[in-house]
Amino acid sequence: LDTPAQDSRRCLYAKDIKEDSQAKTGKQKRPPTRWVHHLSAVFVLLYMSEQLFLPYSHFITQGYNSWTQGLYGYSWDMMVHTWSVQHIKVKYVDAATGDTGYLRPGVFTSAKRWSSHPDMLKQYAICLQERLQEHGIEQPQFYFDIWKSMNHRFQQRVVDPRVDIVSADWSPFSPSPWMLPLLMDLTPWREKFEEIEETMANETEVVFVADFPGLELENYINSDFDNVSLTVLNGEVRVEFRGKENNESLKNVTLKKDEKLEIPSGEFHNVLTTSESPSCYYYVSTNQTAVEFNKNITEYMEKQNASAANTTDDTRSANDSLDDPLMQKYQRAAEWKKRRELWSTNLSQLDYFKVWGIKKYFTFRRSLLMGGLAVRNIVFGTPELEQLAADLRWAAGEFNPEKYMDELAGVPMSDNP
Strand, coil or helix: what is 285? Predict the structure, then answer.
């Protein structure tokens, strides 16, 4: 500790700048630079140029273009969009026998971004083809019906559901014709969405949909929903009711702009866009199961509070029926509500920032370790399945933001599952 700090050979210091005795104008003589200085400058310039170029590289990487342009997932501008997924349907057809079936979306993969990017969707379709061939399906074809909303627009299709993605062409340097464009012409309708939502009660759910001419939405309304209606905002649609078994056409109803139709729950129906321009419409419904559940939670919490305040022996506790699965569900919901109240009361902005920082640390840690494991597997081969699973758990880390927030907020252990 008594030894003074030494100068680094890799750095340039202002004290090393001296007067050039040979110069007539009194110029200063700078210290000599080494190769490491030039190499560092070149690396920084190349890295900054890459980060500035990637968001605008879509004129080259057209095969990656979808609703977002260029190498969206690998550039700094990827956080300017928010996504909402309505539903995804994965249908396969065996070209050899004509048999048809459906798969759970995301099966055989833990990734979530495959439904937004054409390159990942193509890879996922090929992966599914190989897996189904292992199960005796000789020539599987895959058709995806993906409905999403970006930045609070309409829910609309991402992929043409009539195209077999396995046999569809894809190139990193040419557009993918089977990716449907974002309906930018309907963007101004977002203000109309807000106006409609403001007129609805809290228990009412609204879903805005837009579709292309000639395409059809197959939809099923769960029996939990009541007072379901469909209202057309623009274009023309034909609603075909299919019944509970979805095997017969009961009736067809054509709707034009501003026309409304009641939709029965517990049944299938199809909505075909018959106008030459894209149609836009919205569903309004009330989830009676959720309304009743919230009502019961409120009554359950009132009984709990009354039991805690009443000390008489003849008072029946609200916890007497905890062996009832429905009562257990009420208890979990009530505990979660109390935890949220404690978070909002006891946690400061600094606490939320700490949680955010730790989550970011584990995200970067996971990325680095997963990348290292991938390189190891490529160089030395994939280890046994049990060892690989243990490595992945180690790389993922163990951090539960909710439990950490419970500790900071002082949530009792009985309310901290």
Answer: strand
